[in-house]
C-alpha cells in the first residue's frame, strides 16, 4: 500500500494541498482528506505531536513512532517539524500556508492565526479552525475534552441505562472530536466548490460543542418542537415515554439488538417458520398465538390497548424473538433473522467487525506496510466506495519530521 | 446573496435522517435540492413525515417534527414512478441535475430502472450517491438496517458502556447523523473530482463501514497487540482511553439525576483540581502521579463523587472551570438549548416557517463561514409543495399540464 500501483486510480482530492496544524480535535479531518488523495502536511513541534505519546502503543512499548492512536489518525499524511517559537520556522509555516488550498487548525499551535493577513498573500486560502466553543464565543475560554464536549453538548444526556442510579454514558472512541472533524471536512469542501466558481477563499469557524448539539436527533428536536425532555434507556433511543427493551444476551454471551418485533402476518409467518426449522415450535408455548398472528388480516396499532388478543399476539412475537436470541449464538440470530426479513443486529466489538464475512468480502480491512518495523498492519478501511476516485491509505502515519527534506526543498524552490 | 453552492442542483430521493441529513447541509449553502416523493403513498416511505414531536394536537404527513427538521431549505415534488410519464419527467430532471442521491435499501433504484448505468445514459457526468446499511455488494447486501442496527454491527454500540454492564449504546441514531455526514462528504468530493476531470461517478456508502471506521485505535490495539475491546471490565467509556486521564468521568451531583463531567488532562489539571476542591485526599501519595491515579481509579472516583454530590452540577463545573480544569454539567436538552449562552450567541437554533406547522425552531449548523455562510429559513416542504415551480418553471410544463398530470396521478 505504499504509493499507487500501476493503473491505480487517483483519489478525488488529488492535488489538493492541505496544511494541518491540529491537536486531537481536528486531526481526523486531516485523515479524511489525506485518505482521499489530498497532500496533507502535518506540522509538528520538534519534539513531536502530543498524540505520539497516547496509548495504546505497538507491543505496549511507548515511543514516538509506536502510538497506535497516532498511527490511525495520521495515515496518508506527511510530517514536517517546525519550531513556531523561532522566526525562521514561522516564515516556513507562512510559506507553507501561502501555497496551500486548505489550512486546518485546532488547539494551541496556530491559535493566533487569522484569515485576514493570510488572504493578502493567498486569496484562495480556505482556513478551517476547530475549537470547543467557536472562536470568540462566550465560553471560548473554557477548557474542554471529548468527554466534556459530549456531556455539555447533549449526547451524554441521551445515553446510558434504564437504571438512572447509574451515570449517563459518553460513547467511546472520541466521537465528539469526530463529529467536529466531519463538519470541518464538509465545510472545507463546500468552500472549495465555491472557490472553484469564484477563486475566493474564506475562513470557516467550526464549533465542537455546537456540532454535538446538532448531532443528537430526537434529544434536540423533541425540546425544540414540543418542549419535552427525553430520558435515557439501555441500548435504545432515549424517549419521552419508556419503550420496550431491545437488547438480549445470546447463548454465546454476546448481545444482539432485536429491533422491531413482528407486526405483520408475513413476519409472524417468518418467526413460526424459524422456530419450526429449529425444532422449537412445541417448546415455545405461545406458538399458537404466533399462528394467530399469521392469520390476522390487519394489525391496527391504535387498537392495541383495547384488543386483548392483539396485545397477546404482539407479546408472543416479542417473546419469540427473545426466545430465539437466547437459544442461538448472536451471529446465528443476526443472520437467521435478517435472512427472514427482520431488521436486527449483532452487537460486535470493534475488532470483531474485521472478521465478519461481509466486511472481509468487501475488502473493508486493509493492510498497511510499516517497513521500519517489518510489519504489515490491518487497519479499518474505506467509509465510502468511490467508483472513479477511491479512498486509499497512501502511506502509514509519518515518522516525526519524515518529510522535512522534501517539503523544505519544495519551499526553497518556490522561493526561487 | 447567492450561497456557496447556488450553482448546483440535486435530484434528491433521500429520506429519514441518514439521507436527508446530507442534502440538508448542502441546501443550507444554497444548493437547489429537489426532494422527490411518491404521491400514491403520500411520501410515507419517509416515516418521519408523520412522527412526533408535533407542534400541537394535529397529526398527519405534513406535521412530523423530525421531517421538518431534516428537510429545511429543500424543494418538495411528487412523482409517480409507476407511470411512464413519471419516469419521463424524472429523466428530464436527472438531465439537469448534478447529483442524484438516495438512501433506499440496496437495489431499489435499479428496480425502478434508475440504477447508475441508466442515470449515466441520461447524463454522462452524473454523480450518483447511494447510502444503505451494508452497501450494494457483499453477503449482507439485502439486510435491512436503521440507526441502532448500524451502530450495533459496526462496533459503536459495544464501545459505549460502563464496566461490567451490558452495552449502553447510543440513545439516538448517531450513525444516521454521521452516515449523512459521510454522504455529504461523498457528494462534495465527487463534485470536486468532476470539477477537475469532467468525470462523474457512483459513490456507494455502506453505513456500517462508515461506523466501523470510527473505532480505529481500538481496532489497532487488537490487530497489532491482540488486545480486544471485549475483555473483562471493558469497555468503560466514561473513562479515558486515548490518552489516559484520571480523574475522568461522569459524577453524581446534588439533585435528582444530575451529573457533572470532569477530565483532568495532565498534572497541571490535577493540581488545579486539588486546589479548587481543597479536599485533603487529593494530597495522598497514591494519587501523586497519573500512574497511581489510574491504579487507584475506583477509589479516586468515589472520592471525587463525594465532592460532587455536595454541590449542584453547574456549581461544581464552574468551580473547576475557574481553575482551568475541563468540567461541565451533563446538560439536559432545555439547559443546552434555552440557557446556554454559547448556543444562543452562535445562533444555533434558527426558526423556519413551515406551511402547516408555522414557525418552528430547528437545528442550525455548527460552522460559520466568513464569506458565504449558511441560511436556514424555509421549513421542510409539504407534499408536492413545489410541483408548480419545478415542473413548471424548471421543466417548462404549463399550468394546465401540471394540473392534468396531478389529476392523472402522475404528480
Q: Biggest sheet of chain A: strands side by side, in what order?
A: 3-2-1-4-5-6
Number of strands of chain A: 14
Number of strands of chain B: 12
Q: What would the average pLDDT of chain B be, to the nearest integer?
A: 97
| Unreliable spans of chain A | 1-6
Mean pLDDT of chain A: 95
**Apparent shape of chain B:** elongated
What percent of the residues of chain A sit in helical stretches (DSSP H or I)?
25-40%
Rg of chain B (CA only)? 25 Å
**Helical percentage of chain B:** 25-40%
Considering residues with a beta carbon less than 8 A from a beta carbon on another chain, report the largest interface and each chain's count: A-B, 149 and 154 residues
> Structural class of the secondary elements of chain A?
alpha/beta
* Class computed from helices, strands and strand pairing of chain B: alpha/beta
The ordered string of helix (H) and strand (E) elements of chain B is EHEHEHEHHEHHEHHEEHHHHEHHEEEHH
Rg on CA atoms of chain A, Å: 26 Å
Q: N- to C-terminal separation of chain A?
A: 34 Å
Provide the β-strand percentage band of chain B.
5-15%
Largest sheet of chain A: 6 strands, parallel
